[in-house]
Amino acid sequence: MMKEGIDLEVLVRKEGKRIEAAGDILLIYSMGIFDTPPRIHEMVLLEKGPYRPHFHDHSDVYLMFLRGSGVYLLGDTRREYGVGTEVRVPKSTLHGFRVTETTIILSIQSGQPISSEHGLDFRLPTEAEWPSGETV
């Protein structure tokens, strides 16, 4: 349990590792991956802006929004999120974000987000899967 008065955003920026994947398509600060089989826990910070939709083909993902606001895409549906929003993302489901206020997410993934067999479990959609190519 966190002590009262700790600012999550400052903690994640200070202690986290800045990650850039697929160019600047996904720019996050990661607090690390905490392996508690059969799940992986990760706390991420998303800065304001759009994030292109993507897939995790080998993992189901559970997201809990701890701070911030914006819109998330899940499949063909766009919904607003805020503190306390919970989202289940089944594997191979297109999802992405438009962050209007710096956001901190607890991400819990089943399976292996990184493995020697398939590498990083992150894939951008093909044109057939996302014809418009737009951000969320």
CATH superfamily: Jelly Rolls
Mean pLDDT: 77
Kindly report the CATH topology: Jelly Rolls
Q: Let me know the largest β-sheet.
A: 8 strands, antiparallel
Oligomeric form: single chain
The count of DSSP E runs of length 2 or more, i.e. the number of strands, is 10
CATH architecture annotation = Sandwich
Number of domains: 1
Helical content, roughly?
under 10%
Query: Which regions are unreliable across 5 or more consecutive residues at pLDDT < 50?
Result: 1-6, 21-28
CATH class: Mainly Beta
Plain-language structure description:
- Helix content is 6%, strand content 54%.
- The protein has a single domain, classed as Sandwich (Jelly Rolls).
- The model is unreliable at 1-6 and 21-28 (pLDDT under 50).
- The protein contains 1 helix and 10 strands.
- Strands 1, 2, 3, 4, 5, 6, 7 and 8 form an 8-stranded antiparallel beta sheet that branches.
- By secondary structure, it is mostly beta strands.
- The longest helix has 8 residues, at 8-15.
- The chain has one helix at 8-15; strands at residues 17-21, 26-36, 39-46, 49-54, 61-74, 77-81, 86-89, 95-110, 114-115, 119-120.
